[in-house]
């Protein structure tokens, strides 16, 4: 009975599938010997603990990447265990062994030639005796010569005969089919090597028998103990195997040296040699004799060069170690960059490791699993990285979209409805019903018209109209749905929400009905696009939509937003003026940083403010005028300018304009620009101051001249006084000229942004401005500012900006050092030729500290002290003097004395 | 006996011209350079029949002078305000009982005398 090969079957299946049953041989189909191999869980848990510690450092995202090679290793371990990689493992084995150098022959094949066969009975015994006499260590018969050697007693173990085996009924053991003819003859089981990759190269050392194991023929012939795992033969082409004919041995032609120390394998006569086996040693497609195979097997066993597959547990362990190393490398590097290098290094290491294991340990590693592990792990890591990048792209695009529209309402259907309803009102659409259909339910979202479900007519007609509206790209006529509405009624499908959203609206007959209807249609189209975008953004949670690539929907979203906000893409944020863009539907699309600051001061929400509410917050217009203005803008375009309320002591003018696709086209956006005109007004004020100064400075002189002339001509003055009047006129003219000369420096250059330029100004106004800046801080600290100023001011010479900054800094210092409930004093006094401005109060600090802070270089002065240091340096150029004092418990006193004219 | 006028103005030259003219017109004139000095003259005890008051002055301007005067509760002669900037807000701020009129600059001698005469009679001769 021949062995048919090996097979692998699933075992009892305990933990992790590492317990397995492997059928390593069978006397007949369906019967076999099982061997259980179990991994050592303790060793693995220790390694996993180490890996876990290493992976935890990198967080869950990297842990996932690190675990992928481990997963691959486990999968390949199972594949290897199930025998799915035998073919390629055998190929690798052949590549490494087929052309390896041969060993000195240890086996001699003796052919049973015709002359030998003709010698008759007892020839085999003679052959044995002759061979042993010539120094052969053992004589092995691949076919049993039977009684021809039975009569001779040979030393035990010197003659080996291959015999068939059969299974002992009812027991998992085997027995020789016939007992040996005499005790000196050793029997070896005749078993065909199992095929690996179609080639017979996997052989057993022994079969289980009773009372002990039955050695295989090759094992016995090689004189090896019948123990050990199945082994693979090195079927190298370069192995010499000497051949003689039996008659040569008997005739003494064979020299003694040829057989000395050799194992003699006696080949059966030609007629009894039908068995051939496929071998990699031969030309592809040809076969070798079984005797050659036996000889090679015996030679291999004698040389102790048999090769064993790495055990299941060891294979699993090796794969896991390999995975751990790969995982750690991936963890500590960029997988995409390290992947090619790692693949190359892995293949090299696997090749070298396999060769070394084969050559020096006689072990065949799980080559296929090892070679596949790295590319598969790389593929999975790459795939995971791509998925991660895709998720990141989706998140990034979503954040970008949300940021560009300030998270307006892409996810908030309720808010969108409000905006649309508000816009509809702005357009003069007085009948508007926004509803959502969920299954058989109709949910009214916004309604300017008291309508019930029943009022929309019978369900069949409603469904038909809704279906038509969904298919149509423009609103459809829906007058039949609401016959009691005056004028025309239209129905537009606005896209998917939880259900489908629809807008039923009507416009009364009037002058602007056509434009209002077209604008409403474009609003509906925009709303539908918005809804689609919103649905796309939530596609991650919706498997029905998840097939849509991120770049596609992101592209759609960007196109939508870019298409409706050219101003957004042209760098609104770079503008210094505060700009906000509203969608024609009414919701805010974008607000630049300056507008964001303005909203912060007004305590308004960037995401919830509509254009009308913004206009109401920023201007003094009433609601009716705002509605009319917005309606006019939407319908007729153009722009609107209106003064804004003063916010944070700044004067602004609002400009609201409609951006259209083209002249007369549909509105794309409403742009609100808050232009800060404070600077213009400040410059105008400075010019006014200058002209006022000129006026005041010489008016008295001109008055004196005029009065003196009039008095002289009135006849009321005597000659002496007339002469005095003439003198006074001369003085007045001279003084006026001097004053004009004195004014010249203040007339040039024209007031501008340059700091350090001084102008005639009202110091009290500057003080008020500074107080305005710190008012919030004073409220927060519960400190009162008591200010006193002249009722009518003259002109003080100073740089208005530096002065305001300096006064603000002084107030801030004193405020910050004042207990709650206290007051600080701010006083402006105009004296002859000078204006004195003082700030006092607070707890105070040691003068030395204040001195150190204020006498430091400006760039090293701390916080608000810097503005004072800069102001003190510049004040010299105005002819002003800044002084300060402080004492702990007494408080601070800052004084600025400036020149005063008029 | 001459009617006495307290002339409060920080412009020396204009004060001098005005004082000469008023004195030649039969009024006695006492000058003060600002509101604080004007209050001091009033506190000196010499009775005045009229105060000619400029508004824009250092130390104590005309409005503050009027305020202090009003708060003091003393008997106050009529005040004629001289102002080049008699805007609406200034006129509104001049809502004191003592203010009897406003003379806009530039001052015409005849108009000034007419205003003064409407309030007080000059001494004859």
Number of helices of chain B: 5
CATH architecture of chain B: 3-Layer(aba) Sandwich
CATH homologous superfamily label of chain B: Response regulator
Please describe the biggest sheet of chain B, giving its number of strands, its sense, and whether it closes into a barrel.
5 strands, parallel
Poorly predicted regions of chain B are: none
Structural class of chain B: alpha/beta
Distance between the termini of chain A: 133 Å
What is the averaged pLDDT score of chain B?
85
Quaternary structure annotation: heterodimer
Give the chain pair forming the largest contact, with residue counts: A-B, 35 and 31 residues
CATH domain fold name of chain B: Rossmann fold
Q: What's the total number of strands of chain A?
A: 37
Q: What are the secondary-structure elements of chain B, in order, as H or E?
A: EHEHEHEHEH
Structural class of chain A comes to: alpha+beta
Whole-number average pLDDT of chain A? 76
Radius of gyration of chain A (CA) equals: 53 Å
Overall shape of chain B: it is: globular
Give the helix tally of chain A.
26
Number of separate structural domains of chain A: 7
Beta percentage of chain B is 15-25%
The CATH class of chain B, by name, is Alpha Beta
């Amino acid at each position: 009975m021949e062995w048919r090969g090996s097979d692998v079957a699933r075992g009892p299946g305990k933990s992790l599938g590492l317990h397995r049953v492997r059928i390593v041989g069978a006397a007949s189909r369906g019967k076999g010997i099982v061997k259980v191999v179990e991994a050592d869980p303790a060793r693995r848990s220790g390694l996993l603990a180490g890996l876990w510690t290493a992976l935890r450092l990198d967080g869950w995202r990297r842990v996932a990447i690190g675990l992928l090679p481990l997963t691959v290793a486990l999968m390949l371990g199972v594949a290897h265990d199930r025998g799915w990689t035998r073919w390629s493992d055998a190929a690798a084995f052949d590549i490494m062994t087929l052309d390896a150098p041969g060993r000195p022959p240890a086996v001699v094949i003796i052919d049973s030639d015709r002359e030998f066969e003709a010698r008759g009975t007892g020839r085999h015994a003679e052959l044995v005796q002759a061979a042993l006499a010539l120094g052969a260590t053992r004589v092995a018969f691949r076919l049993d010569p039977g009684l021809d050697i039975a009569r001779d007693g040979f030393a035990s173990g010197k003659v080996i005969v291959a015999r068939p085996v059969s299974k002992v009924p009812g027991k998992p053991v085997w027995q020789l089919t016939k007992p040996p003819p005499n005790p000196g003859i050793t029997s070896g089981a005749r078993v065909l090597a199992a095929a690996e990759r179609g080639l017979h190269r996997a052989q057993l050392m022994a079969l289980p028998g009773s009372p002990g194991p039955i050695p295989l023929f090759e094992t016995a012939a090689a004189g090896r103990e019948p123990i050990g795992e199945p082994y693979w033969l090195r079927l190298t082409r370069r192995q010499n195997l000497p051949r003689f004919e039996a008659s040569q041995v008997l005739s003494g032609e064979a020299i003694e040296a040829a057989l000395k120390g050799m194992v003699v394998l006696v080949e059966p006569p030609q007629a009894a040699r039908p068995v051939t086996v496929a071998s990699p040693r031969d030309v592809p497609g040809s076969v070798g004799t079984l005797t050659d195979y036996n000889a090679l097997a015996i030679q291999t066993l004698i040389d102790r060069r048999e090769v064993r597959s790495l055990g299941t547990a060891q294979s699993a362990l090796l794969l896991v170690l390999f995975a751990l190393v790969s995982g750690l490398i991936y963890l500590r590097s960029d997988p995409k960059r390290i992947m090619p290098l790692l693949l190359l290094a892995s293949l090299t290491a696997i090749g070298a490791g396999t060769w070394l294991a084969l050559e020096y340990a006689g072990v065949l590693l799980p080559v296929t699993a090892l070679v596949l592990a790295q590319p598969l792990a790389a593929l999975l890591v790459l795939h995971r990285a791509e998925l991660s990048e895709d998720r990141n792209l989706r998140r990034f695009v979503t954040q970008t979209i949300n940021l560009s529209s300030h998270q307006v309402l892409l996810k908030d259907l309720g808010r969108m409805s409000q905006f649309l309803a508000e816009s509809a009102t702005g357009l003069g659409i007085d009948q508007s019903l926004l509803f959502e259909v969920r299954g058989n339910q109709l949910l009214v979202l916004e309604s300017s018209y008291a309508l019930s479900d029943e009022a929309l007519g019978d369900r069949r007609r409603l469904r038909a109209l809704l279906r038509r509206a969904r298919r149509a790209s423009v609103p459809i006529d829906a007058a039949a749905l609401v016959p009691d509405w005056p004028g025309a009624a239209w129905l537009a499908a606005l896209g998917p929400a939880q259900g489908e959203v629809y807008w039923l609206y009507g416009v009364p007959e009037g002058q602007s009905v056509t434009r209002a209807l077209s604008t409403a249609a474009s609003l509906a189209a925009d709303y539908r696009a918005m809804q689609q975008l919103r649905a796309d953004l939530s596609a991650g949670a919706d498997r029905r939509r998840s097939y849509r690539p991120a770049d596609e929907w992101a592209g759609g979203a960007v196109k939508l937003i870019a298409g409706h906000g050219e101003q957004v893409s042209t760098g609104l944020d770079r503008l210094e003026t505060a700009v906000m863009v509203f969608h024609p539907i009414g919701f805010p699309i974008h607000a630049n940083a300056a507008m964001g600051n303005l909203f912060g001061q007004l305590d308004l929400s960037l995401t919830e403010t509509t254009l009308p509410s913004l206009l109401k917050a920023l201007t003094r217009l009433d609601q009716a005028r705002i509605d009319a203005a917005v309606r006019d803008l939407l319908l007729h375009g153009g722009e609107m300018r209106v003064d804004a309320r003063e916010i944070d002591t700044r004067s602004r003018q609002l400009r609201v304009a409609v951006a259209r696709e083209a002249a007369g086209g549909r509105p794309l956006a409403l742009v609100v620009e808050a232009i800060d005109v404070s600077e213009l007004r400040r410059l105008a004020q400075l010019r006014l101051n200058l002209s006022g100064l000129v006026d005041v400075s010489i008016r008295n002189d001109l008055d004196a001249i005029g009065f003196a002339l009039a008095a002289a001509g009135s006849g009321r003055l005597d000659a002496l006084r007339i002469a005095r009047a003439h003198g006074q006129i001369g003085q007045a003219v001279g003084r006026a000229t001097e004053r004009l000369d004195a004014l010249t420096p203040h007339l040039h250059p024209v007031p501008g942004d340059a700091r350090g330029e001084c102008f005639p100004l009202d110091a009290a106004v500057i003080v008020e401005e500074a107080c305005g800046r710190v008012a919030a801080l004073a409220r927060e600290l519960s400190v009162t500012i008591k200010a006193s100023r002249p009722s009518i001011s003259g002109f003080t010479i100073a740089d208005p900006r530096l002065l305001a900054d300096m006064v603000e800094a002084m107030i801030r210092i004193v405020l910050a050092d004042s207990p709650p409930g206290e007051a600080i004093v701010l006083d402006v006094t105009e004296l002859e030729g000078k204006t004195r401005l003082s700030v006092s109060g607070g707890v105070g600090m040691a003068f030395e500290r204040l001195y150190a802070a204020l006498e430091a270089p400006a760039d090293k002065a701390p916080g608000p002290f810097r503005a004072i240091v800069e102001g003190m340096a510049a004040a010299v150029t105005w002819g002003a003097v800044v002084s300060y004092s402080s004492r702990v418990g007494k408080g601070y006193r800052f004084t600025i004395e400036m020149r005063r004219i008029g | 006996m001459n009617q006495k006028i307290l002339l409060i103005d920080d412009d020396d030259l204009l004060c001098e011209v005005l004082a000469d003219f008023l004195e030649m017109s039969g009024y006695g004139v006492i000058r003060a350079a600002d509101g604080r000095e004007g209050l001091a003259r009033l506190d000196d005890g010499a009775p005045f029949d009229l105060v000619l008051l400029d508004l824009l002055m250092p130390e104590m301007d005309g409005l503050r002078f009027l305020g202090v005067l009003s708060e003091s509760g003393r008997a106050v002669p009529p005040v004629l305000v001289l102002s080049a900037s008699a805007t609406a807000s200034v006129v509104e701020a001049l809502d004191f009982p003592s203010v009897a009129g406003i003379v806009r600059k530039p001052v015409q001698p005849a108009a000034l005398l007419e205003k003064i005469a409407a309030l007080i009679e000059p001494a004859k001769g």
